[in-house]
């Protein structure tokens, strides 16, 4: 188990969301369940969130609870297997052939193009 200072240095993702009902901002650490805070200004909300993170870590370490580590791109291989209908496979193969690229490149293009719509 890591020590408190080691956990504080880890790059936990911080989400800052405007509170449209009450005003101010809500800040959470999605990888640390239940660790959230708020503040009237963004600076205040971030400062409060850092205090909440410290208290969350102290309390969970004291209780002997497992502290999740931050998600990392190193946790992903860049590969996954996908089963698709034969008709879609044929369509993708036809389109990639028409573009003069491999089906893998064509599928990567489609995934990247569509993923950008949600980023």
UniProtKB/TrEMBL annotation:
InterPro entries for this protein: Arc_rbn_hlx_hlx, HicB-like, Ribbon_hlx_hlx, TA_system_antitoxin, TTHA1013/TTHA0281-like
Pfam families linked: HicB_lk_antitox (PF15919)
A single BP term in Gene Ontology: regulation of DNA-templated transcription
Residue span(s) of domain HicB-like antitoxin of toxin-antitoxin system: 19-78
SUPFAM superfamilies reported in the protein's UniProt record: Ribbon-helix-helix, TTHA1013/TTHA0281-like
Protein name: Predicted nuclease of the RNAse H fold, HicB family
Organism: Pseudobutyrivibrio xylanivorans DSM 14809
């Amino acid at each position: 188990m890591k020590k408190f200072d080691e956990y504080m240095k880890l790059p936990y993702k911080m989400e800052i969301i405007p509170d449209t009902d009450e005003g101010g901002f809500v800040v959470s650490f999605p990888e640390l369940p239940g660790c959230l805070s708020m503040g009237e200004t963004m600076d205040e909300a971030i400062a409060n969130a850092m205090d909440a993170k410290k208290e969350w870590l102290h309390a969970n370490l004291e209780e002997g609870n497992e502290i999740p580590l931050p998600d990392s791109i190193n946790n992903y291989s860049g590969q996954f297997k996908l089963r698709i209908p034969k008709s879609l496979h044929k369509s993708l193969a036809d389109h990639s052939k028409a573009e003069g690229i491999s089906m893998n490149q064509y599928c990567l293009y489609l995934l990247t193009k569509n993923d950008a719509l949600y980023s």
